[in-house]
Every structure is written in C-alpha cells, then in structure tokens.
Amino acid sequence: MMAEDIQHNQKANFNGLTKSAKSGASKKLTIKNFKDRPELTDSYTEDTWIKLRDAVSAIQNSTSIKYNLEELYQAVENLCSYKVSPVLYKQLRQVCEDHIQAQIHQFREYPSSSLDSLSFLKRMNRCWQDHCSQTIMIRSIFLFLDRTYILQNSLLPSIWDTGLELFRTHIVSDGAVQSRTVEGILEQIECERNGETVDRSLLRSLLGMLSDLQVYKDSFEQRFLTETNRLYAAEGQRLMQERDVPEYLHHVSRRLEEENDRVISYLDQSTQKPLIATVEKQLLGEHMNAILQKGLWMLLDENRVCELTLLYELLSKVKGGLMTLLQAWRDYIKVHAHQTSGLLLFTTTKTIKKTFSLLAVWSDPTDELLILDKIMIIFRFIHGKDVFEAFYKKDLAKRLLVGKSASVDAEKSMLSKLKHECGAAFTSKLEGMFKDMELSKDIMIQFKQYMQNQSDPSNIELTVNILTMGYWPSYTPMDVHLPAEMVKLQEVFKIFYLGKHSGRKLQWQPTLGHAVLKTEFKEGKKELQVSLFQTLVLLMFNECDEYSVEEIRTATGIEDGELKRTLQSLACGKARVLNKMPRGKDVEDADRFHFNSDFTHKLFRIKINQIQMKETVEEQVSTTERVFQDRQYQIDAALVRIMKMRKTLSHNLLVSELYNQLKFPVKPADLKKRIESLIDRDYMERDKENPNQYHYVA
C-alpha cells in the first residue's frame, strides 16, 4: 500500500507536488524505532550507498525499485546516525546532478523547425514534471537526511531546493534552451491572441516552472511585455482607421477581458498590473483624443447610453482620461446649449470636478423645477451613483441645517426623481434626513410647552434639530467652552428628550450650531445672525472691550484654524463688528481685537457669514474613500449570497453573477482581492484540483 501511494504521487500534477514538497507534508514512510542497529563498517557503508544509489537511479529511469521502501528509509537513518551525513548528502547531490546534466542533450539536439516548437514545449514540460515527481520520491527516501543534517546547516539547500537549483543551472539557464522555451511560449500566446485554441494547461505548467525556478521576470516577463506593447501599438493604429468608435470601444473592452483572463489562467499574478497598463496605454491612452473627436458627439447625438457608459469606464482607467472626457463633453454642451437650455450651467462653471461631485452640487434645486429634468438626463450617464449619493447627501445636509434651500418642495421633487431612477434603497437615508427635520419641529413644540412649566425659565430660546446618525454625513465632534446658561439649557433639553426616549444618546454638534444675538451699537439696537463659534467670541466682549487671539482661544476652546476663520469673519469681512489691530485681511497670533461700537448697517438683522474653508482635495478623496469602503462590504455580501445559493461556481461565472448584482463599477482586480479576503476568512475555498473553481464553506 505504501509503494502504491508513492507511485500515485509521481503522477500528480506539478502544483500539488510543489506545495507538498515545500511544506514538508510528505509523511508516507513511517519508520519503526529499531533498538538494534547494524555495526558501521566500510563494507556496510559502501553496500548501503550502492543500494540507495540504485534506488535513486530506478526512480530517475522510471523503473521498479528492487528494495523495500521502509528498508531504504531505515538505511538513510542508520547512515545519518553514524555521522556520515555530509558524505551521503554530497553523493546524493552528485547522482542527481549527473542525471540532470544528461537531460540537456535531448533539447540541444532537438530539430529547430518552427513546426516543432509546440512539441519542444511538451518535451520540456514532460521533463519538468518527471523531475518534480522524481525529486518528491527521492526526498521521501532521504527524508531523515533532509530533516536533520540539511535542516541544521543553514547554508545547505533542502533536497527539493537542490533539485530546483540543478534543473535551473543545467537545463533552463542554458541560453539556447531558455530562448527556445520562451519563444515557444510567446508564440503560443500570440496564436491565442489571434483567435486560435492553445493548450493553456501546458502554458500554466511551463510558466509555473519559470516562476518556481525564479527566472520568470528576467527570462519571460520583460520579453512578453515588449511583445505585448508592439502588438497593441500596431493594432491600435490599424483599428482606429478601420473601425468606428463604438466598435473600437467594444474591441478594447474585449481585449482587456482577454488579458485579465490570461493572468487568471496561466500568467503570474505579478504580470497583471504592467500587462493591463500596457494594453490601456496603447489602445486607449495613445488614441484618447482621436476617440473623443471621432465619436463622442455622435454617441451623444444618438443617445447611445451603452457605448457612453463603456467610454466612461474605459477612460477612467487612463491617467487624465476623465478630465479629457469632461472637457470634450463641455465643448459639446457649449455648442448645443441652445437645444438644451438647462445644461447652460456647464458653460458658466469655472472648474469642472468629476461628474458625480459636480452634478451633486448642481442638484441644489431652484424655483426653476424644469432644470431637474435636465439634471436627471445627465445623472443617467453616471455609473458610480453611490459616489454621487455621498456628495449629494453632504450638500443637502448643509442646505437643510442652515436653511439655504430655495424650496423644500423642489428638494423633495428631486428626491422623488432619484427614487424613481434608482429605487427606494438609494434615497432611504436622504428621506430620513427630511423626516428628522420634520420630527424635530414636533419635538420643539413639545419642548416649548415643557419650558413654560419650568419654575426657572431661561432667557435663551433654544431650538434643537435631532439628527439620526445613520442618515446624516459624519461630523467631527469638537469640544468648546459654552457659557453656563447654554450648558444649563442643554441639560434641561437632555432631561426632557431622554425622558421621552429612554435608551438613546445625544451628542451635541457645535460646528452646526447658529444663534441670533441682540446687541447695541451707537447707531442703535441690532440683531446679529451668527454661527455658534461667532457667538462664543462675541459674548466675551460683554466682560471686556479687548482681547488677544490667545485669550479668545483659551476662553472658547475653539480649534486654532476654525478660530482664525471666525475672527476673520467678524473683523475683516463686510460686517465688521470687531476691530483688529493691526489691520489686515489675515489673522495672526499677535493680533488684538476690540468691540466696534461705531458699527453701522442699514438692516436691523444682519447675517454675518462664517468664512467657509473651501472643500479640499483631501475632503473629496475622503468622501470617495468612504464610498469605496462601503463598496467592499457590498461586494463581500454579494459574494457570500451567491456562493451560499450556488454552493460551487467557476471564477468566471461567479464574476459574471457578481456584475449582475452590483450597481457600481468594479475592476476585476478588486473583485479578486475580495474573493481572496473571503477565502482567508473561511467563507469559501478553492477547489483542490481546479484553482479557478470555488466552494461555499458552510
């Protein structure tokens, strides 16, 4: 039974053999402990080595072994126990090296006709597979030597690594043999790119050989990428002349799918990034302007949504692609503005952001409800609608909380259109924001009645908006020093609210607060409509006429950047209720401020706008990254859902079903990462015989 198991190992595929050898998993030969060992003599040592050498020779020549395998293993253990391990290792290495050196002749003498290149590859693969099987078998016999003497000597390679080293040195590193092997592989790949059927398992085995022998990058990858660049450079030039833009776009998409499939099927994973970059550069990057000049206007005129979506997806892969597309789109709209009046907004925009963020800003409804229909026309071209939703929610929150929306009816109309276009799930959080605002009004009516029954009523009229955390954008909490009367009023509201809604938690957001202050200047009484930060600064001047920046910072607890913007709005803007010394547009740490009693204004209620920090690139990136993080959870959930239902699926079918379920664009590389993540977390596993097939793990 033991011999049959080892013979079965000899027939196993290379990937299995490699993993078994590297992990030291071979435990077929289990030896009993013998108390009595033979006496070590020169004759015994010589006879034992001859027996072992004959066994190795039989394995290498695929003939039957005359000796019992347990007896051979015991013989190796005996020799190692008698301290002849160095000699035994040296003799074994020499026998293996002699055999491998003899194999090179069959390749050097092989006919050089191009018709024989495939048979040459098959012979090379057979030689490699035999070598791996033989090395596994030999290691099984010499396992004791491998796990004692060799393991204890860090400078000595293991028996498996010795086999790789010898094969690399005497077979693959031979200039003529390596060149012919690589040329044969490249020829097969070119045939496949031209539509012919090739033996992918042969290519996978040979490229795996180059990878295991650590010559993949130097011997193959560089030449492969060079040939790929040459092929697609010529193909791009030719097809741009021969085909119209829609046909060309579909061809590029198909080519990218084919190259990604090659990576999955037989190329090393490390090749994917430079390979795809080469294809994108030659088929898209080099012809980007020509594609847009030749076909964009036609696609827009004919409302070719499918091809426009494909164009967007492809150009998003190329550096500068989206900005170039948006510029071309802008030019189109300028020319056709008289046909689509609502789209004139494009022509007055000074800078164009990415489509989703720009459209989110434009979706601030106005009294001209007709423009919403025009916006929805553009919205349908956006594939990454979850990114649009993130930017739209951020801007909607600002409008609702500071009362800047021109029309609540228009806001709800826009929401209704988005719901009709994308479904209830897309707008559920946005609808929740409106619901919060309406519920807050009801709560405030009840709170005012509650305050009327208090024995110690406050002089401050408090209005609170209760925001459900899951609906609204995330806001960074900031601790500031509120006046005692404000703190007391907050506690009163907290007791009131939690008395009605036990188990809930309130977190105050001072960054969103605003107030109306009554003040008196020489001109007369005025009301100032200000932010909470502006309120904290102005209230200080009830106690003293002049403060330094540091004194204001200490008293209010406002963060430095926010404080300087607040002081700038009060002393450097249009409504200068504070005077700054020395004068200037910017606020410095050494500046001092005093109350401007001479302030005049024609209005009774004056709104002093806070200096708004422009949305930075980092903030835009942060918003986008949060969306992409949410996408990972959605991909994981979809993968588990599909595998739980189907139990077993091939890679291509799994990816196909995933694309049908997801509502946003995903790169194949990103899907592969999520699959690997679920495998690592034991939600699914690869088939042991077919790495391109997965099983659900219950």
TrEMBL record:
One GO CC term, this protein: cullin-RING ubiquitin ligase complex
Pathway connected to this protein: Protein modification; protein ubiquitination
Taxonomic source organism: Cyprinus carpio
GO BP: cellular response to UV; DNA damage response; proteasome-mediated ubiquitin-dependent protein catabolic process; protein ubiquitination; regulation of protein metabolic process; rhythmic process
Family under the similarity heading: Belongs to the cullin family.
InterPro entries, sorted: Cullin (IPR045093), Cullin-like_AB (IPR059120), Cullin_CS (IPR016157), Cullin_homology (IPR016158), Cullin_homology_sf (IPR036317), Cullin_N (IPR001373), Cullin_neddylation_domain (IPR019559), Cullin_repeat-like_dom_sf (IPR016159)
PROSITE patterns, alphabetized: CULLIN_1 (PS01256), CULLIN_2 (PS50069)
Domain Cullin family profile span(s) in chain numbering: 339-571
GO MF terms held by the record: ubiquitin protein ligase binding
Top-level taxon of origin: Eukaryota
Protein name (record): Cullin-4A
